[in-house]
Specification:
The structure is a homodimer of 441-residue chains.
Chain A: H1 3-9, E1 13-15, E2 33-36, H2 40-53, E3 57-60, E4 77-80, E5 87-91, E6 96-100, H3 105-112, E7 117-118, H4 131-137, H5 144-147, E8 154-160, E9 166-170, H6 183-186, E10 195-202, E11 204-205, E12 211-218, H7 221-233, E13 240-245, H8 246-253, E14 264-271, H9 275-281, E15 285-290, H10 294-305, H11 307-313, E16 317-320, E17 323-324, H12 330-344, E18 350-353, E19 358-365, H13 370-386, H14 402-412, H15 415-428
Parallel strand pairs in A: 2-4, 3-4
Antiparallel strand pairs in A: 1-2, 5-6, 6-10, 7-11, 8-9, 8-10, 12-14, 12-15, 13-14, 13-18, 16-19, 17-19, 18-19
Helix pairs in contact in A: 7-9, 7-12, 8-11, 12-13, 13-14, 14-15
Enzyme class (chains A, B): oxidoreductase
GO molecular function (chains A, B): D-lactate dehydrogenase (cytochrome) activity; D-lactate dehydrogenase (NAD+) activity; FAD binding
EC number (chains A, B): 1.1.2.4
Amino acid sequence: MDIQSELKKIGLELKDVEGYTEDMGYFKGEADAVVLARSTEDVVKVMRFANEKGIPVIPWGRGTSVTGAVTAIKGGIIIDMSPMNRIIDFSDEDWIIHVEAGVVLDEINAFLRPRGFFFPPDPASSFMCSIGGATSEGSGGMHCVKYGTMKDWVLATRMVLPDGTTVKVGEPLHKNRVGYDLTHLVIGSEGTLGVITEVWLKVVPIPSYKIKRVLAFFDSEEDIGRTIINLRKNRVQPEIAEYMDLKVLEAVKRSFNIETHGVGALLIDVPEFETEKLSMSLSNPSYVKVAESEEEKEELYKARSYAYLAVKSISKYAMSEDIVVPISKLPNVFKKIRELEENYGMECPIVGHIGDGNLHPIILYDDSNKDKAEAFFRDLCKYVIDEGGSITGEHGVGIQKRELAIRQIEVHNGRTLLELMKGIKSVFDKKGIMNPYKQVV
Amino acid sequence: MDIQSELKKIGLELKDVEGYTEDMGYFKGEADAVVLARSTEDVVKVMRFANEKGIPVIPWGRGTSVTGAVTAIKGGIIIDMSPMNRIIDFSDEDWIIHVEAGVVLDEINAFLRPRGFFFPPDPASSFMCSIGGATSEGSGGMHCVKYGTMKDWVLATRMVLPDGTTVKVGEPLHKNRVGYDLTHLVIGSEGTLGVITEVWLKVVPIPSYKIKRVLAFFDSEEDIGRTIINLRKNRVQPEIAEYMDLKVLEAVKRSFNIETHGVGALLIDVPEFETEKLSMSLSNPSYVKVAESEEEKEELYKARSYAYLAVKSISKYAMSEDIVVPISKLPNVFKKIRELEENYGMECPIVGHIGDGNLHPIILYDDSNKDKAEAFFRDLCKYVIDEGGSITGEHGVGIQKRELAIRQIEVHNGRTLLELMKGIKSVFDKKGIMNPYKQVV
């Protein structure tokens, strides 16, 4: 069957598949066709056709996955949601914004900020990722240490199920207790349950208090872990609490005016009324820079946002990890990563949302040592599982972490939980056509 | 079969069924047996036995449901979780507390507050409800306007599935993206998916900024709704924003030293640095009382907490509603309730968490007019559904709202969503023994 001709026959607009062969984590796939979705009706048409023929369907926001969540690894139809990019409605009384799935995340904030509001989850890809993708991936970002990830901000979605039925999942209300909570089942399901076409999000006012932004340098990663523990023990809720090690700082320095000292730095925002407690919490800082102007604040934030791309640019390939450990285990996890670096003879700069125990160690490799990089990655993930952590805090499972994610569930939750997830997948997608071979289902 | 003898034979401790025939909403049931759960093992024993014989099982925290969620309406075994009341672990580094399901909610805060932390969801029954019950019901309370409900605070649960298998659902971590989010499926599932035996909760520091508490009186409910709209438009995030109408205030006054003026009052907490914006937001207040001392603050909070019990004490029966409407529709919903009062010739004092659009109109009735009270209730719920609201924000569905909840899903979400919920129920509970005839499944 010529899938492309069939799709054209039912009035769908196709794109060249060449633009959709790789995500940002270098995971490859080859779609049989790429459909541009201009409306929910287009999505319905694709799903009815694909369900009847048993063809895989992969929703594609902007292709910013780093885990292979959006590539057509065994063929099928990619639905590009980017044309559905309208902001449908916003209420400054209800503090809810209703958007189409293809809207770029930063456009939501560009709309909200002049009105005095913002949408907190801010993945590093926010300048290009779609809100539908961020919902499917349960994305996080710098502000999540205070505000939580996508799961804390999505109230409802409209989605097209594998059989072509459209449903609204959840209620665009701040409270609702009718029925089971399927909204959170959809968040983080990585396109395996249906295609999200619209999203209702909570928003919040930009804080009215002043925020202090500091960049604190340290001579040991022990002290860096200790500082985060101290912040917790001193009951300080930071607005952001980020780590960049020396290699990351040096990579960032190529494009941004940023200082480098010691082994690395913490970028921390706290409300001004918590400044004293922040100072008390810093464990042997070697140097502390306080951002004096709004411009300086902005520059530091942008520098940190750019860190992953900066590190990617200094190596042929970069494998970004996304581990989470209990705060109490931060000093140990640093030691482990440095041990693995030495054992494997590889570099692994560390950046990440350290304030909630979420680190992105980035394993650098080239064509000669991809296998070693993957072994490094697996060793680290296994260590994290043994320590009671998670192998992903915000990037998701995709195809990259499928086996390790299954292992984590078996060790932490019990094999039965995995069976329940597979059972739920079957309830939504009897024929198994939605983004197959992804997540743990 | 003599269920009680069979349960004794396998070493379980029984209680007299007489203490378990009614919840706090007067919903009645008659269990064949009541088992005291002293450990997860006890729960496993009950589930294996019940699953084999096809006997319904109803988890019971402290019986504080107001919707019939915990009564054995068609027989079966009630599992009383109250003996499982240990605080297992708390980390002031991870800001996570791990407790058994039978712990009373206020005991968690009694443990946390001297350590500088608190657990925000605070249902009016917090002095007696269990944390397992609050999780199953997705409960709310006064602090939820700022902090959200149980769904925003439960990270993981341990539960016994209908076939007796024990699983941990979720991860006790601030971020985790492995697998589907089944934690939120369990929150609010009202005991229809399994028995929760342990819960991991996020906690937060007690705010370090000062809080202003005011009781503002108004001469019209139009102005009361308008004040909440103004707060939103002025981008004020209150810590609490509660309403008590005059009848509620008069009932509360019997036990508390509280003033009464106009048609009712808003009890509002804001951070001290938002005082000015609060003053700007009050729409034609007739009188504003500012709490001057900690004692006065505490007294006002307690008075509001006591409101439902106070109203219950002035009528033979009281049917507490739990509607949620978009903030923009608050003035209209007041008008509708007063219209219904007049049409039915019945009294309906209103109290509730007005800050997030969640009101508890309490329909007063006696043995002579129960049918009219139920018609009033149905009319109000139908109005709310038509206005895009929800018929429950925190009390849940139970048996009370089953039909109306199904209607809400059909109107707002599509019948298909209901089928998905039923499908998921079957994945967990093939024989349908977990708390049958409750929720929408």
